[in-house]
Amino acid sequence: MARTTAEADEMITAAEAHGVVLVPFQNTRFMARSSQRTKPLPPKVGEVTGVRARFGHGGPQAWAPKATLFFDKDLAGGGCLIDLGCT
User: Fold this and answer.
1) Domain ranges in the chain?
2) CA 31, CA 26: separation in Å to the nearest integer?
3) pTM to 2 decimal places
4) Nearest Cα residue to 53 out of 76, 37, 75, 77
């Protein structure tokens, strides 16, 4: 959300002053399948020492076909780094 606690506090103060809700956003935060806990493994599997997961999508053409800002460099800002850099 911010680089420092002080910056986060400033963001919270500004949101409160303007009567808006401040929500740290992750692209997959509200997607049920990607945030579900895994089922417990049977004891015979042994100790789980790591998990690797991937998530993909069809891009804005699939979920926002009318959102032309993704393809207009004057509107898109910093491109995918700014759009997806938080993930």
Assistant:
1) 1-35, 59-87
2) 10
3) 0.36
4) 37
Per-residue confidence in pLDDT tens, the chain, 87 aa = 788 899 999 999 999 999 998 887 666 666 666 556 666 667 776 777 777 777 677 777 787 788 777 777 777 777 666 666 654
Using CA atoms, how far apart are residues 69 and 80, in angstroms rounded to an integer? 12
Taking the alpha carbons at both ends of the chain, their separation in whole angstroms is 11
Rounded Cα–Cα distance for residues 64 and 67 (Å): 5
Cα-Cα-Cα-Cα torsion 65, 69, 73, 76, nearest 10 degrees, comes to -120
CB 22 within 8 A of CB 11: yes
Q: Please, are residues 28 and 15 in contact by the beta-carbon 8 Å criterion?
A: no
Unique residue bearing structure tokens 């895994």: 38
| Dihedral (CA of 3, 73, 30, 15) sign | positive
